[in-house]
Structure formats: C-alpha cells, structure tokens
Specification:
5 helices, mainly beta, 23 strands, OB fold (Dihydrolipoamide Acetyltransferase, E2P), about 40% strand
C-alpha cells in the first residue's frame, strides 16, 4: 500500500486527473447502456422478427445493452433456471440447452421473481451453480420500440475497446395500430407462439385488442352456416387466458374454465395463502400453458391421491372453478378442481 502511494504521488497531476475522469466516464457509460423492457417482448438470436426465439422477457426487466442495429438492440439476458430443465451441450460454443419441451422460467435468484421464459432448445452459457439451480447468460436481440433506454445509446464497440462517449440514438417511432389489415396470408394462434387456430387471407380487416411483444390479439368478424356449428361444453370457458382472469377477477369468479397446466407439486396452504383455508391441500401448477405464470388448484382428498401417482412436470387438461382470479401477494389465479386428465401428446 505504501509503495502504491509513492507511485501515485510520483505521477504528474494531469495523468491522475485523466485517470479519474476516465473512471467516471466508464461508470456513466455503464449506466447509459441499460434498457428496461416496457412490455413483454421476444429475445431473439438475430436482429430480425423471423430469427429463432431464445426467450420471452417480462415487462419491467432491466438489461445491459451491447449495441444497436436499426430498430433492434443487442442485450445480455442473465438469470437462474431450474437445472432439471437443462442439459449439457457443446453446440455453437455454449454449455447448456433448454431441454424442457415447453421451455423454462428464468429468475432473479433460485425460486425468485420470473424475468423471462426461455424457449425449448435455446442455448446458454453457464455462469454459476447451486443445488438444483444454474445461473445462465446469453446475448441476443430485442425489438427497440419495446424497450426504454435508461441513459444514452449503448456503445457499439466491443467491451475490450476503451470507453468513449456515445451520442444518444433515437429509435424510430413505432406506429400504434388499432385497426389493420393482414399484409399476407396470416396464421392465427391460440396464444403467442401457441397452437394454430386458423389462417386469414391477405387484406382481411382485424381489430387489435391486446399486445404482447411482437404479438397482437386480434378480432375478426365473419359469417358461418349455423348447421356447421355445435353447442360448446355447457358452462365451461375454453380459450380464456390466465392474464384475462387476473386482469378481471370479478368477471370470472365462480366460472368454469378449461386449462392446460403443468403439475409442479401438491402443497399445504399456510397463512401466506390467505385465499385458501390453512391446511387445505392444493396443486401448484404452471400455466395455463403456454403462459409462464402459476395457478393454485384446490384439491379434494381423492384428487390428492390421483396426483400422487403422477410425476412432477406432467401436463394436465383440467376443468376448474375460479375461486379468485388474483390471489393476495402473488396475484395467481385460484381454482377448485372439477376434473383432470393427462394431456395427450400431439
């Protein structure tokens, strides 16, 4: 320490000042290179909407930026993921691949807040391990208009280059559509990236009623012969999302919904689960798939016995009655299970 002090005192004052200024500049650049996700958005391998999807990042997540390419921003995605859902690999210089068929959640810490949903087959670098969990990292691209820049524009140079000031770069404005027409033959999906629901021809008029990253939910009106229709299952709502139930809990309370969920575990309600009687057994389930959230499904003793014969991560088709659309604290839907069956493979 004494020798270092002598060396520092021997340096010209101008050198010391420049060094201090460079250090401050580096700190400011680090702050400027951060973005916040304003709405759920896709994280892709290349800066194009057709590139392979690596993950879907939740709104509010802050990420460090590497560079900008037109309307796309290259960012670093890091977090903790359930180790059982990963497999080792040596593809393309990465250590791990997401092996779970429906992907897996990326979290702030083991069992922490969900940052993103990693896609099945996505490759990641391993950074750290704990029992049952692994911290992973990946660089990818996100659509710039869905991000909020927390400082100036990110530096386009490699991290090994000396830091330099970068002027702010304004991303082009994105038109906000309410009504639109299909630009070409357009596939419809039951959920973002989910099962196919049909195809619309070019120039079909639609109304946009919701957005999720690059995806929009649309309404399309058409006519059909009544003889081609049949009554829906009495009283059971099919196609209702978990997001809808959470957003409008009073509307769905007491209604029957059909969901596909992933069985995680059977648990006993404690004082934290204020909406479930203490000691009541319930199923912790991921879903409704392909959504990344969770639901609590209250069980009878007979249903507990049925689940005891199933492996965790089994996918189930359930019909449940909504007890509450948004629980205290975590805001997860709570259902009473009416019936369930294993999901058949496609």
């Amino acid at each position: 320490m004494r020798q270092s002090s002598h060396l520092l005192s021997a340096l010209p004052a101008c050198v010391v000042i420049v060094a201090l200024l460079c250090g401050g500049t580096a700190e400011r650049l680090e702050a400027q290179n951060r973005y916040r996700v304003m709405r759920t958005e896709n994280f892709r391998r290349e800066p194009t909407g057709t590139a392979p999807l690596l993950a879907t990042v939740n709104a509010g997540v802050e990420m460090r930026a590497e560079s900008v390419d037109g309307r796309w921003v290259q960012v670093v995605l890091e977090g903790w993921i359930w180790a059982r859902s990963m497999e080792e690999t040596n593809r393309e210089g990465y250590d791990l691949i997401v092996a779970a068929r429906d992907g897996e959640n990326l979290r702030t810490e083991p069992n922490g807040r969900i940052l993103a949903r990693a896609s099945a087959g996505a490759l990641f670098e391993e950074a750290e391990r704990q029992p049952g969990w692994v911290r992973v990292r990946r660089v990818g691209w996100m659509f710039g208009p869905s991000l909020e820049q927390l400082g100036g524009a990110p530096a386009a140079q490699r991290r090994a280059d000396p830091p330099r000031a970068v002027p702010p770069v304004a991303l082009p404005a994105e038109p906000v559509l309410d009504r639109a027409v299909t630009a070409d033959r357009t596939s419809l999906h039951r959920a973002p990236g989910g099962d196919s629901a049909g195809v619309l021809p070019p120039d079909a008029p639609v109304r946009i009623i919701a957005r999720s990253g690059e995806w929009v939910r649309v309404q399309f009106e058409a006519w059909a012969r009544e003889t081609d229709l049949r009554p829906s299952t009495p009283g059971v709502l099919v196609g209702v999302t978990g997001a809808e139930v959470r957003a409008r809990p009073a509307e769905f309370q007491g209604k029957l919904v059909q969901w596909i969920v992933q069985f995680i575990a059977v648990q006993d309600a404690d004082e934290v689960r204020r909406d479930i009687p203490t000691g009541q057994r319930y199923m912790l389930a991921r879903g409704p798939l392909p959504e990344t959230g969770f639901a609590y499904v209250v069980l009878t003793d007979e249903q507990v016995g049925q689940l005891a014969k199933m492996e965790p991560l089994t996918e189930l088709v359930i019909v449940g009655q909504v007890r509450t659309g948004r629980s205290h604290y975590l805001g997860n839907p709570i259902l009473s299970l009416v019936e369930m069956a294993r999901r058949r493979d496609k």
